[in-house]
TrEMBL record:
The lineage of its organism: Bacteria, Pseudomonadati, Pseudomonadota, Alphaproteobacteria, Rhodobacterales. This is Pyruvate/2-oxoglutarate dehydrogenase complex dihydrolipoamide dehydrogenase (E3) component. GO terms for molecular function: flavin adenine dinucleotide binding; NAD(P)H dehydrogenase (quinone) activity; oxidoreductase activity, acting on a sulfur group of donors, NAD(P) as acceptor. It comes from Donghicola tyrosinivorans. Belongs to the class-I pyridine nucleotide-disulfide oxidoreductase family. The keyword Flavoprotein applies.
Amino acid sequence: MKEIKTDILVIGAGSGGLSVAAGAAQMGAKVVLLERDKMGGDCLNYGCVPSKTLIASAKRAHEIATAGEFGLTVSGTQVDYAAIKDRVAHVVASIAPHDSQERFEGLGVTVIREEGRFVGQNVVEAGETRITARRIVIATGSHAAVPPIPGLEQTPYLTNETLFDLREKPSHLIIIGGGPIGLEMAQAHARLGCRVTVIEAARVLHKDDAEAVSLVLKHLRADGVEVLEHTGARKVGGEEGAIWVETESGARIEGSHLLIAAGRRPNIDALDLPAAKIKATRTGITVDDSLKTSNPKVFAIGDVAGGMQFTHVAGYHAGVVIRSALLGLPAKAKTTHIPWCTYTAPELAHVGLSEPAARTEYGGRLEIVVQPMADIDRARANGTTEGFVKVLVVGGKPVGVTVVGHDAGEIINFWAMVLANGLKMSHITNMVSPYPTVSEINKRSAGTYFSPRLFDNKMVKIMVRAVQRFLP
Ligand SMILES: Cc1cc2nc3c(=O)[nH]c(=O)nc-3n(C[C@H](O)[C@H](O)[C@H](O)COP(=O)(O)OP(=O)(O)OC[C@H]3O[C@@H](n4cnc5c(N)ncnc54)[C@H](O)[C@@H]3O)c2cc1C
Ligand SMILES: NC(=O)c1ccc[n+]([C@@H]2O[C@H](COP(=O)([O-])OP(=O)(O)OC[C@H]3O[C@@H](n4cnc5c(N)ncnc54)[C@H](O)[C@@H]3O)[C@@H](O)[C@H]2O)c1
């Protein structure tokens, strides 16, 4: 067995692990990085990148199908599902060099392509190598949770790890789970000409603003997606190409393919966490707000830590750990300024408190501003008038924002900046937005907030009359 001593050992070369490894190595630390599968983790290989690339094809298909509204006649469009998957693979391959073993070795990281397993409090074995580290960062991510539905184990099904390799277009895709994965893939497939049924045990996108979700649902249904809510899958069966699902409400759905998108489980089974006295639950490794596990020499970041499961959160966690493990500075991971976006059409994005949480916390002090997209001239020109920005304001400061509409994920960036820096609505009125842009909606939201204060205010009217009397 080969022995290595290092400053930092990172287990998992996905969004979180790669960011820690790159940062630590470039700041002069000795870094060892373990990866048991593909460099780049879920986001690059089985998650964000392939899903958003597939959505891009679906968006084109939809634009062509609705070109008539813009005075264009298009005929004879064919969907070549295999060619779309070729493009998905091509885009993944074009990003892969950034996450590659070669690039990281070039940064001075020792990359070992083996599975890591704890054999002591700060000792990990990976293949024929034993690594002893001053600090260890677990960034092993998550995998698709497969619910214990009778018959599922004997039935062929897809997960996010196999969906993007599928080359024959499903004639009828049944999806169990109406979270971000389920809905993004449902709409993309419907727009590519598949029949799609989503079975959701609770309500779809249950973490998001209910009013915004209902707009998303309206559009999904208009695209032909059948969405069954508040009913779980009771029984599943069938064979390749002929799958059936019975729901708790008694419906029987027959389709060609089944996608399981029913949440995530942390990748912890191979780690032998008890050997390092690290505590975990079903949802992830237990961490404090500095991302330390129950073993103070070991951190856990990203999906495996069981909190918000997004690439940008894994990257943010990496920064917190670098500050603490490398520079010895106090660092805490917060969540109130973390945005997210579900890339359906319309997109649905959020940052900060939800409306129910803000009501509980602030009661009567909460003010709500809703700015419709239809008031924005550029949205009219673009034909994307559906949607709104909803800002939850307390004492002049936004505490939560939901955006639903075209490019909501782009618009939420602005509000992420506002919340991260504790800016007020008055700061937003100071800016000037170029006309005509869709992002004008942000400034308009601040205008909508201040309008009643300015225009429905007796004192302002009295003051203006008085000033007008004395002005030369
Ligand atoms: C279909 C889909 C779409 C998504 N879309 C988005 C999106 O649009 N935006 C967004 O922000 N997030 C999205 N996500 C979530 C995002 O992919 C994850 O939050 C992100 O990848 C988590 O990063 P991570 O570093 O924690 O884990 P990962 O990126 O999964 O990396 C973990 C790595 O650890 C390796 N590993 C595991 N165990 C071991 C071990 N014992 N030893 C060595 N290596 C190990 C794994 O092989 C993997 O490479 C999506 C996820 C899915 C499934
Ligand atoms: N755009 C993005 O940023 C993006 C996209 C995809 C995924 N992600 C990340 O990946 C995570 C996982 O996504 P997800 O959609 O799998 O998870 P999720 O947990 O958000 O949604 C899973 C859904 O499946 C339902 N469900 C579970 N068991 C079921 C059953 N037996 N029958 C019917 N419904 C059932 C749940 O009620 C839930 O609504 C997300 O929470 C998010 O953090 C992000």
